[in-house]
Write a structure and sequence with these properties.
The chain is α/β, with parallel strands linked by helices. It is built from 12 helices and 13 strands. It has helices at about 5-10, 90-100, 120-130, 165-170, 180-185, 205-215, 220-255, 275-285, 285-305, 335-340, 355-380, 435-445; strands spanning about 35-40, 55, 75-80, 85, 105-110, 115, 135-140, 150, 155, 310-315, 390-395, 410-415, 425-435. It is globular and about 75 Å long.
Length: about 475
Protein backbone atom coordinates (compact mmCIF):
# COMPACT_ATOMS: atom_id res chain seq x y z
CA UNK A 1 0.00 0.00 0.00
CA UNK A 2 1.68 3.16 -1.18
CA UNK A 3 1.44 6.40 0.81
CA UNK A 4 -0.18 8.08 -2.22
CA UNK A 5 -2.86 5.38 -2.37
CA UNK A 6 -3.56 5.77 1.33
CA UNK A 7 -3.97 9.52 1.04
CA UNK A 8 -6.14 9.09 -2.02
CA UNK A 9 -8.42 6.81 -0.07
CA UNK A 10 -8.59 9.36 2.75
CA UNK A 11 -9.44 12.13 0.33
CA UNK A 12 -12.25 10.10 -1.19
CA UNK A 13 -14.06 9.66 2.10
CA UNK A 14 -17.43 11.42 1.82
CA UNK A 15 -18.41 11.57 5.50
CA UNK A 16 -17.12 10.50 8.86
CA UNK A 17 -18.88 8.43 11.52
CA UNK A 18 -20.08 10.10 14.68
CA UNK A 19 -18.04 8.79 17.60
CA UNK A 20 -20.11 8.13 20.71
CA UNK A 21 -17.28 8.90 23.09
CA UNK A 22 -17.20 12.46 21.75
CA UNK A 23 -20.83 13.21 22.52
CA UNK A 24 -21.22 16.18 24.88
CA UNK A 25 -21.43 14.97 28.46
CA UNK A 26 -25.02 14.96 29.71
CA UNK A 27 -24.56 16.88 32.94
CA UNK A 28 -26.97 18.82 35.11
CA UNK A 29 -24.45 21.60 35.63
CA UNK A 30 -21.79 23.51 33.67
CA UNK A 31 -18.32 21.95 33.39
CA UNK A 32 -15.38 22.70 35.64
CA UNK A 33 -12.56 24.85 34.39
CA UNK A 34 -8.97 25.21 35.55
CA UNK A 35 -7.25 28.57 35.15
CA UNK A 36 -3.66 29.14 36.25
CA UNK A 37 -2.63 32.78 36.65
CA UNK A 38 1.07 32.91 37.42
CA UNK A 39 3.06 36.09 38.05
CA UNK A 40 6.80 36.60 38.21
CA UNK A 41 9.16 37.05 41.10
CA UNK A 42 7.34 35.22 43.89
CA UNK A 43 5.79 37.44 46.51
CA UNK A 44 6.39 39.16 49.84
CA UNK A 45 5.13 36.38 52.04
CA UNK A 46 4.43 38.39 55.20
CA UNK A 47 2.10 40.62 53.15
CA UNK A 48 0.43 37.64 51.43
CA UNK A 49 -0.14 34.95 54.05
CA UNK A 50 -2.79 35.48 56.77
CA UNK A 51 -1.40 35.29 60.29
CA UNK A 52 -3.88 32.65 61.45
CA UNK A 53 -5.31 29.52 59.88
CA UNK A 54 -9.07 29.16 59.63
CA UNK A 55 -11.74 31.56 58.44
CA UNK A 56 -10.36 34.62 56.67
CA UNK A 57 -10.45 37.60 58.98
CA UNK A 58 -12.02 40.99 58.49
CA UNK A 59 -8.98 42.32 56.66
CA UNK A 60 -6.87 40.37 54.17
CA UNK A 61 -3.09 40.82 54.00
CA UNK A 62 -2.20 43.85 51.91
CA UNK A 63 -1.20 42.01 48.72
CA UNK A 64 -4.50 40.11 48.68
CA UNK A 65 -6.62 43.08 49.78
CA UNK A 66 -7.92 43.86 46.25
CA UNK A 67 -9.78 40.52 46.56
CA UNK A 68 -11.77 41.58 49.64
CA UNK A 69 -15.01 41.54 47.64
CA UNK A 70 -14.43 37.84 46.86
CA UNK A 71 -13.37 36.79 50.38
CA UNK A 72 -15.89 33.93 50.38
CA UNK A 73 -14.40 32.62 47.12
CA UNK A 74 -10.78 32.50 48.35
CA UNK A 75 -8.86 29.53 49.67
CA UNK A 76 -5.38 30.60 50.80
CA UNK A 77 -2.92 27.71 51.16
CA UNK A 78 0.44 27.94 52.89
CA UNK A 79 3.32 25.62 53.69
CA UNK A 80 3.71 24.25 50.15
CA UNK A 81 7.16 23.90 48.57
CA UNK A 82 9.08 22.39 45.65
CA UNK A 83 12.07 20.16 46.37
CA UNK A 84 13.17 18.99 42.91
CA UNK A 85 16.86 19.14 42.12
CA UNK A 86 18.64 20.47 39.02
CA UNK A 87 21.10 18.80 36.67
CA UNK A 88 22.91 19.93 33.56
CA UNK A 89 23.72 23.52 34.47
CA UNK A 90 20.30 25.14 34.79
CA UNK A 91 20.28 28.71 36.01
CA UNK A 92 18.07 29.68 38.94
CA UNK A 93 15.21 31.02 36.82
CA UNK A 94 15.18 27.89 34.67
CA UNK A 95 15.21 25.73 37.79
CA UNK A 96 12.20 27.49 39.29
CA UNK A 97 10.22 27.67 36.06
CA UNK A 98 10.68 23.97 35.25
CA UNK A 99 9.55 22.92 38.72
CA UNK A 100 6.66 25.39 38.74
CA UNK A 101 3.78 23.40 37.22
CA UNK A 102 5.48 20.00 37.05
CA UNK A 103 6.48 19.43 40.67
CA UNK A 104 9.16 17.20 39.18
CA UNK A 105 11.77 15.30 41.18
CA UNK A 106 14.54 16.30 38.75
CA UNK A 107 14.74 19.03 36.12
CA UNK A 108 17.66 19.27 33.76
CA UNK A 109 19.21 20.67 30.65
CA UNK A 110 20.28 18.08 28.06
CA UNK A 111 22.22 19.35 25.05
CA UNK A 112 20.72 22.77 25.64
CA UNK A 113 17.17 21.41 25.83
CA UNK A 114 15.09 21.95 28.98
CA UNK A 115 13.62 18.73 30.43
CA UNK A 116 11.17 18.50 33.34
CA UNK A 117 7.99 16.40 33.45
CA UNK A 118 4.32 16.64 32.48
CA UNK A 119 2.76 19.79 33.89
CA UNK A 120 -0.52 19.97 35.78
CA UNK A 121 -2.25 22.05 33.10
CA UNK A 122 -1.38 19.58 30.35
CA UNK A 123 -2.44 16.63 32.50
CA UNK A 124 -5.79 18.38 33.03
CA UNK A 125 -6.05 19.03 29.28
CA UNK A 126 -5.50 15.33 28.67
CA UNK A 127 -8.49 14.59 30.91
CA UNK A 128 -10.98 17.12 29.49
CA UNK A 129 -9.48 18.44 26.25
CA UNK A 130 -11.45 16.11 23.98
CA UNK A 131 -14.65 17.90 25.05
CA UNK A 132 -13.67 21.35 23.74
CA UNK A 133 -12.37 22.93 20.55
CA UNK A 134 -8.99 23.58 22.15
CA UNK A 135 -7.61 21.12 24.72
CA UNK A 136 -5.90 24.04 26.48
CA UNK A 137 -4.66 27.59 26.06
CA UNK A 138 -1.17 28.75 27.03
CA UNK A 139 -0.93 32.53 26.86
CA UNK A 140 1.32 35.30 28.07
CA UNK A 141 5.00 36.09 28.33
CA UNK A 142 6.53 32.73 29.29
CA UNK A 143 9.43 31.73 27.09
CA UNK A 144 13.19 31.72 26.75
CA UNK A 145 14.47 30.46 30.11
CA UNK A 146 11.00 30.43 31.67
CA UNK A 147 9.05 27.39 30.48
CA UNK A 148 6.08 26.26 32.54
CA UNK A 149 3.93 23.83 30.52
CA UNK A 150 5.08 20.40 29.35
CA UNK A 151 3.11 17.70 27.53
CA UNK A 152 5.92 15.28 28.33
CA UNK A 153 9.24 15.62 30.09
CA UNK A 154 11.00 16.78 26.92
CA UNK A 155 8.03 18.44 25.16
CA UNK A 156 7.53 22.02 26.37
CA UNK A 157 4.38 23.82 25.22
CA UNK A 158 4.96 27.29 23.74
CA UNK A 159 3.03 30.25 25.13
CA UNK A 160 1.42 32.70 22.72
CA UNK A 161 2.02 36.36 23.54
CA UNK A 162 0.05 37.92 20.66
CA UNK A 163 -3.61 38.53 21.66
CA UNK A 164 -4.69 38.70 18.01
CA UNK A 165 -3.34 35.22 17.29
CA UNK A 166 -4.98 33.85 20.44
CA UNK A 167 -8.35 35.30 19.46
CA UNK A 168 -8.07 33.95 15.92
CA UNK A 169 -7.11 30.51 17.19
CA UNK A 170 -10.05 30.46 19.60
CA UNK A 171 -12.77 31.52 17.20
CA UNK A 172 -11.56 30.78 13.69
CA UNK A 173 -14.59 29.63 11.72
CA UNK A 174 -16.94 30.06 14.69
CA UNK A 175 -19.35 32.67 15.89
CA UNK A 176 -19.07 32.83 19.70
CA UNK A 177 -22.24 31.92 21.56
CA UNK A 178 -23.16 31.56 25.22
CA UNK A 179 -23.76 27.89 26.01
CA UNK A 180 -27.22 27.08 27.36
CA UNK A 181 -26.13 24.48 29.89
CA UNK A 182 -29.68 23.76 31.05
CA UNK A 183 -30.84 23.00 27.51
CA UNK A 184 -27.73 20.95 26.79
CA UNK A 185 -28.31 18.83 29.86
CA UNK A 186 -31.90 18.05 28.88
CA UNK A 187 -31.20 17.40 25.18
CA UNK A 188 -31.04 13.73 24.17
CA UNK A 189 -27.56 12.52 23.14
CA UNK A 190 -27.06 12.38 19.38
CA UNK A 191 -27.47 8.98 17.79
CA UNK A 192 -24.37 7.40 16.20
CA UNK A 193 -24.24 7.39 12.44
CA UNK A 194 -24.53 3.95 10.86
CA UNK A 195 -21.28 2.49 9.58
CA UNK A 196 -22.33 -0.53 7.52
CA UNK A 197 -19.56 -1.90 5.27
CA UNK A 198 -21.40 -0.79 2.13
CA UNK A 199 -22.02 2.81 3.17
CA UNK A 200 -19.74 5.78 2.34
CA UNK A 201 -19.54 7.01 5.93
CA UNK A 202 -17.03 4.41 7.01
CA UNK A 203 -13.91 5.88 8.55
CA UNK A 204 -10.63 6.12 6.68
CA UNK A 205 -9.10 3.50 8.95
CA UNK A 206 -11.97 1.08 8.36
CA UNK A 207 -11.36 1.36 4.63
CA UNK A 208 -7.67 0.57 4.87
CA UNK A 209 -7.57 -1.77 7.85
CA UNK A 210 -7.19 -4.94 5.81
CA UNK A 211 -4.50 -3.40 3.61
CA UNK A 212 -2.69 -2.14 6.71
CA UNK A 213 -2.77 -5.59 8.31
CA UNK A 214 -1.38 -7.14 5.11
CA UNK A 215 1.35 -4.53 5.03
CA UNK A 216 2.18 -5.02 8.71
CA UNK A 217 3.14 -8.67 8.19
CA UNK A 218 6.00 -7.65 5.94
CA UNK A 219 7.38 -4.91 8.20
CA UNK A 220 9.99 -4.93 10.90
CA UNK A 221 9.18 -3.88 14.47
CA UNK A 222 10.28 -0.25 13.98
CA UNK A 223 8.20 0.17 10.81
CA UNK A 224 5.21 -1.44 12.51
CA UNK A 225 5.40 1.23 15.21
CA UNK A 226 5.62 3.95 12.58
CA UNK A 227 2.58 2.54 10.81
CA UNK A 228 0.63 2.41 14.10
CA UNK A 229 1.57 6.00 14.84
CA UNK A 230 0.50 7.09 11.37
CA UNK A 231 -2.86 5.34 11.62
CA UNK A 232 -3.47 6.73 15.09
CA UNK A 233 -2.73 10.24 13.79
CA UNK A 234 -5.40 9.77 11.13
CA UNK A 235 -7.83 8.44 13.73
CA UNK A 236 -7.16 11.51 15.90
CA UNK A 237 -8.01 13.81 12.99
CA UNK A 238 -11.23 11.86 12.42
CA UNK A 239 -12.19 12.27 16.05
CA UNK A 240 -11.58 16.01 16.02
CA UNK A 241 -13.58 16.46 12.83
CA UNK A 242 -16.47 14.43 14.24
CA UNK A 243 -16.33 16.44 17.46
CA UNK A 244 -16.29 19.77 15.61
CA UNK A 245 -19.29 18.79 13.52
CA UNK A 246 -21.32 17.83 16.59
CA UNK A 247 -20.32 20.99 18.47
CA UNK A 248 -21.43 23.10 15.52
CA UNK A 249 -24.87 21.52 15.81
CA UNK A 250 -24.98 22.13 19.56
CA UNK A 251 -23.86 25.75 19.22
CA UNK A 252 -26.44 26.34 16.49
CA UNK A 253 -29.13 25.39 19.03
CA UNK A 254 -27.49 27.63 21.64
CA UNK A 255 -27.54 30.55 19.19
CA UNK A 256 -31.34 30.27 19.02
CA UNK A 257 -31.73 29.97 22.80
CA UNK A 258 -28.47 31.18 24.43
CA UNK A 259 -27.58 30.98 28.08
CA UNK A 260 -28.36 33.81 30.51
CA UNK A 261 -25.06 35.70 30.36
CA UNK A 262 -23.79 38.14 27.77
CA UNK A 263 -20.57 37.84 25.83
CA UNK A 264 -17.91 40.51 26.00
CA UNK A 265 -15.68 40.19 22.94
CA UNK A 266 -12.46 42.27 23.23
CA UNK A 267 -12.42 45.15 20.78
CA UNK A 268 -8.86 46.37 21.32
CA UNK A 269 -6.97 43.53 19.67
CA UNK A 270 -3.74 44.38 17.83
CA UNK A 271 -3.96 44.69 14.07
CA UNK A 272 -3.08 41.67 12.00
CA UNK A 273 0.60 41.12 11.16
CA UNK A 274 1.87 43.49 13.86
CA UNK A 275 5.37 42.30 14.91
CA UNK A 276 5.31 40.73 18.35
CA UNK A 277 7.98 43.08 19.68
CA UNK A 278 5.68 46.06 19.04
CA UNK A 279 3.16 44.40 21.36
CA UNK A 280 5.43 43.16 24.14
CA UNK A 281 8.18 45.79 24.37
CA UNK A 282 5.91 48.55 25.72
CA UNK A 283 4.59 46.08 28.33
CA UNK A 284 7.98 45.92 30.03
CA UNK A 285 8.53 49.70 29.99
CA UNK A 286 5.16 51.22 30.82
CA UNK A 287 2.89 49.99 33.65
CA UNK A 288 -0.19 51.43 31.93
CA UNK A 289 0.52 49.42 28.77
CA UNK A 290 1.38 46.45 30.97
CA UNK A 291 -2.00 46.68 32.68
CA UNK A 292 -3.84 47.00 29.34
CA UNK A 293 -2.06 43.91 28.07
CA UNK A 294 -2.94 41.84 31.15
CA UNK A 295 -6.58 42.93 30.96
CA UNK A 296 -6.81 41.96 27.29
CA UNK A 297 -5.21 38.55 27.80
CA UNK A 298 -7.39 37.90 30.84
CA UNK A 299 -10.50 38.84 28.85
CA UNK A 300 -9.53 36.24 26.26
CA UNK A 301 -9.19 33.62 28.99
CA UNK A 302 -12.65 34.49 30.34
CA UNK A 303 -14.13 34.39 26.84
CA UNK A 304 -12.55 30.99 26.20
CA UNK A 305 -14.07 29.60 29.42
CA UNK A 306 -17.47 31.23 28.90
CA UNK A 307 -17.85 29.89 25.34
CA UNK A 308 -16.46 26.47 26.33
CA UNK A 309 -13.68 26.87 23.79
CA UNK A 310 -11.36 25.35 26.36
CA UNK A 311 -11.57 24.33 30.01
CA UNK A 312 -7.86 24.70 30.79
CA UNK A 313 -5.90 27.94 30.47
CA UNK A 314 -2.49 28.98 31.79
CA UNK A 315 -1.70 32.69 31.78
CA UNK A 316 1.92 33.74 32.35
CA UNK A 317 1.36 37.23 33.64
CA UNK A 318 4.12 39.83 33.89
CA UNK A 319 7.84 39.93 33.35
CA UNK A 320 10.86 39.94 35.65
CA UNK A 321 12.33 42.60 33.38
CA UNK A 322 9.37 44.98 33.67
CA UNK A 323 9.72 48.53 34.98
CA UNK A 324 7.17 49.92 37.44
CA UNK A 325 7.47 53.70 37.63
CA UNK A 326 4.42 55.12 39.39
CA UNK A 327 3.51 51.72 40.84
CA UNK A 328 6.62 51.78 43.04
CA UNK A 329 6.50 54.87 45.25
CA UNK A 330 9.55 54.24 47.49
CA UNK A 331 13.24 54.53 46.70
CA UNK A 332 14.58 55.12 43.21
CA UNK A 333 14.66 51.60 41.68
CA UNK A 334 11.71 50.46 39.54
CA UNK A 335 13.25 47.47 37.72
CA UNK A 336 11.44 44.37 38.96
CA UNK A 337 14.35 41.92 38.67
CA UNK A 338 16.71 44.22 40.55
CA UNK A 339 14.15 44.70 43.30
CA UNK A 340 13.59 40.93 43.51
CA UNK A 341 17.22 40.45 44.46
CA UNK A 342 17.56 43.51 46.69
CA UNK A 343 14.31 42.78 48.49
CA UNK A 344 15.06 39.15 49.36
CA UNK A 345 17.61 37.41 51.54
CA UNK A 346 18.02 34.20 53.49
CA UNK A 347 16.18 35.94 56.33
CA UNK A 348 13.53 38.56 55.68
CA UNK A 349 15.07 40.89 58.22
CA UNK A 350 18.32 40.91 56.20
CA UNK A 351 16.63 42.12 53.00
CA UNK A 352 16.66 45.75 51.93
CA UNK A 353 13.43 47.11 53.47
CA UNK A 354 12.85 49.74 50.78
CA UNK A 355 13.23 47.20 47.97
CA UNK A 356 10.95 44.79 49.83
CA UNK A 357 8.26 47.45 50.16
CA UNK A 358 8.63 48.15 46.43
CA UNK A 359 8.06 44.44 45.75
CA UNK A 360 4.99 44.47 47.97
CA UNK A 361 3.59 47.34 45.92
CA UNK A 362 4.26 45.49 42.64
CA UNK A 363 2.52 42.32 43.83
CA UNK A 364 -0.43 44.28 45.21
CA UNK A 365 -0.66 45.86 41.72
CA UNK A 366 -0.72 42.41 40.10
CA UNK A 367 -3.49 41.33 42.49
CA UNK A 368 -5.50 44.45 41.69
CA UNK A 369 -5.52 43.51 37.98
CA UNK A 370 -6.20 39.84 38.79
CA UNK A 371 -9.16 40.90 40.93
CA UNK A 372 -10.81 42.46 37.87
CA UNK A 373 -10.88 39.02 36.24
CA UNK A 374 -12.31 37.45 39.38
CA UNK A 375 -15.04 40.10 39.46
CA UNK A 376 -15.86 39.52 35.78
CA UNK A 377 -16.11 35.74 36.23
CA UNK A 378 -18.21 36.15 39.35
CA UNK A 379 -20.72 38.22 37.34
CA UNK A 380 -21.18 35.66 34.53
CA UNK A 381 -24.37 33.67 35.14
CA UNK A 382 -24.32 30.08 33.92
CA UNK A 383 -27.86 29.29 35.00
CA UNK A 384 -28.00 29.35 38.78
CA UNK A 385 -24.23 29.44 39.30
CA UNK A 386 -21.47 31.75 38.12
CA UNK A 387 -18.51 31.05 35.88
CA UNK A 388 -16.35 31.58 38.95
CA UNK A 389 -18.38 29.00 40.91
CA UNK A 390 -17.53 26.44 38.24
CA UNK A 391 -13.83 27.31 37.99
CA UNK A 392 -10.68 26.77 40.00
CA UNK A 393 -8.37 29.75 39.52
CA UNK A 394 -4.87 29.14 40.84
CA UNK A 395 -3.19 32.49 41.59
CA UNK A 396 0.51 31.92 42.21
CA UNK A 397 4.06 32.56 40.97
CA UNK A 398 6.83 30.50 39.44
CA UNK A 399 9.05 31.35 42.41
CA UNK A 400 8.28 31.45 46.10
CA UNK A 401 10.21 34.73 46.30
CA UNK A 402 12.39 36.87 44.08
CA UNK A 403 15.52 35.33 45.55
CA UNK A 404 14.77 32.15 43.58
CA UNK A 405 13.17 30.58 46.63
CA UNK A 406 11.21 27.33 46.43
CA UNK A 407 9.83 27.21 49.98
CA UNK A 408 6.36 28.42 51.06
CA UNK A 409 4.94 29.23 47.65
CA UNK A 410 2.19 31.83 47.36
CA UNK A 411 -0.99 29.88 46.58
CA UNK A 412 -4.57 31.13 46.40
CA UNK A 413 -7.40 29.11 44.90
CA UNK A 414 -10.32 31.26 43.76
CA UNK A 415 -13.73 29.80 42.96
CA UNK A 416 -15.64 26.78 44.14
CA UNK A 417 -14.58 24.29 41.48
CA UNK A 418 -18.16 23.19 40.88
CA UNK A 419 -18.69 22.60 44.59
CA UNK A 420 -15.44 20.68 45.13
CA UNK A 421 -13.76 23.42 47.22
CA UNK A 422 -14.76 25.08 50.49
CA UNK A 423 -13.35 28.61 50.24
CA UNK A 424 -13.32 31.51 52.68
CA UNK A 425 -10.39 30.07 54.65
CA UNK A 426 -6.64 29.92 55.13
CA UNK A 427 -5.41 26.33 55.32
CA UNK A 428 -1.88 26.03 56.75
CA UNK A 429 -0.17 22.74 55.89
CA UNK A 430 2.92 21.26 57.47
CA UNK A 431 6.01 23.16 56.29
CA UNK A 432 7.61 21.80 53.10
CA UNK A 433 4.52 19.87 51.94
CA UNK A 434 5.09 19.29 48.18
CA UNK A 435 3.25 21.59 45.80
CA UNK A 436 2.77 18.40 43.76
CA UNK A 437 0.17 17.31 46.34
CA UNK A 438 -1.93 20.30 45.31
CA UNK A 439 -1.64 19.26 41.67
CA UNK A 440 -3.01 15.80 42.51
CA UNK A 441 -6.03 17.51 44.06
CA UNK A 442 -6.55 19.84 41.09
CA UNK A 443 -6.39 16.95 38.64
CA UNK A 444 -8.82 14.94 40.73
CA UNK A 445 -11.33 17.79 40.51
CA UNK A 446 -10.82 17.99 36.75
CA UNK A 447 -11.68 14.32 36.36
CA UNK A 448 -8.19 12.84 36.18
CA UNK A 449 -7.89 10.33 39.00
CA UNK A 450 -4.10 10.22 39.12
CA UNK A 451 -2.78 8.55 42.29
CA UNK A 452 0.41 10.63 42.23
CA UNK A 453 2.00 13.52 40.40
CA UNK A 454 5.58 14.76 40.26
CA UNK A 455 7.23 14.30 43.65
CA UNK A 456 3.98 13.87 45.60
CA UNK A 457 5.03 10.40 46.81
CA UNK A 458 8.80 10.51 46.38
CA UNK A 459 9.86 13.77 48.04
CA UNK A 460 11.85 13.42 51.28
CA UNK A 461 9.24 15.85 52.64
CA UNK A 462 6.21 13.88 51.44
CA UNK A 463 3.09 14.49 53.50
CA UNK A 464 -0.56 13.47 53.71
CA UNK A 465 -0.09 10.39 51.51
CA UNK A 466 0.47 12.64 48.50
CA UNK A 467 -2.81 14.56 48.90
CA UNK A 468 -4.02 17.76 50.60
CA UNK A 469 -6.71 17.34 53.24
CA UNK A 470 -9.32 19.96 54.18
CA UNK A 471 -9.90 21.52 50.76
CA UNK A 472 -13.57 20.57 50.64
Amino acid sequence: MHRRAFLGTAGATVALPFLEQLAPAQSTRPPRRLGIWTVTGGTVIESWKPREAGALGDRLPSILRPLEFARDDLLVLSGLSHHGRSEGGLNAHEHCSLLHLTGAEVVRKVDGKLVAGPSVDQAAALAVGSQTFLPSLEIGLAGHENKYSFRAADVPVPFEANPRLIFDRMLRGRRPVVPNWTARASAPPPAPTGTRPDTPDRSVLDLVREEANDLRRGLGAADQRRLDQYLEAVRTIERRIAFAEERQRVEARDALHPGPSRLTVPGNLPRENVPIWQITNPVSRDPERHEEYIRLMAALMVLAFQTDTTRVCTFACGSDEALFPGVVTVGYETHCHTLEHQGNAGRVEDADPIAREALRQIHAWYTKVFAETVRAMKAIDEGGSSLLDNTILLYTSYMADGGHGTRDYPVVLVGKGGGTLRPGRHVAYQPHTPVANLYVELLDRMGSRVPRFGESHTSPHRRYDGRLPDLT
